[in-house]
């Protein structure tokens, strides 16, 4: 076998895989393999997997947690109270219409009666376990109803103006605004306030110092 030519020896020396040395060409290649181009020279390295987005299952769990936070059982009680208040309010409106008051005006008047009756019943039944500022809750409840009153009466007047019976219009509007009223009451009007533990349980705070009798015995 003949002696390798000068060009072949130069190629062998220049190849870092053979010599183990760093040549200017290999330094340039290392410079190109920067963090901005990590796979520029190494095509065998696998690409990173894309991070999966929120799946349908996680979205369902999030919805379930949100629904649980709204306490559906309380919503059922709230709806039952709303049904009773609706019957009472409808009877009041029927009497007002019987005495010659118009459908829209009588709806506004019966609304005032229904608001206060609804507050009392929901305080006693729906959110009875919450410690609330009663006066503050009453103010917020009426403010909440006042904010809803304009669209409530507007939708009712629209239905009546379209020729719908006043009773049917009552039923539809009550159903439409029940969810809004419950969310407002649950998260704002009847929101509980923080109280010390001894006030929540109704027990008086007991001092940690010994009683007078024990102190007398110690002195004796």
Keywords for this structure?
single chain; mainly alpha; globular; disordered C terminus; 220 residues
Task: Indicate the low-confidence ranges by residue numbers.
Answer: 7-13, 30-34, 203-220
Please state roughly what percent of the residues sit in beta strands, choosing from under 5%, 5-15%, 15-25%, 25-35%, 35-45% or over 45%. under 5%
| N-to-C span | 118 Å
Number of separate helices = 10
Radius of gyration: 38 Å
Task: Say how many strands there are.
Answer: 0
* Helix/strand order, N-terminal first: HHHHHHHHHH
Q: What structural class do the secondary elements suggest?
A: mainly alpha
Mean pLDDT: 75
Q: What does the overall shape look like?
A: globular
Note the main sheet: none
Instruction: Give the proportion of residues in helices.
Output: 55-70%
Task: Characterize the structure shown.
- With 220 residues, the protein is mainly α.
- The chain has a domain at 75-194.
- The chain is 69% helix and 0% strand.
- It has helices at 6-14, 16-19, 24-32, 56-69, 72-98, 103-126, 134-161, 166-189, 197-200, 212-219.
- Helix 5 runs antiparallel to helix 6 (103-126), helix 5 crosses helix 8 and helix 7 (134-161) packs antiparallel against helix 8.
- The longest helix has 28 residues, at 134-161.
- It is globular and about 70 Å long.
- Residues 7-13, 30-34 and 203-220 have low confidence and may be disordered.
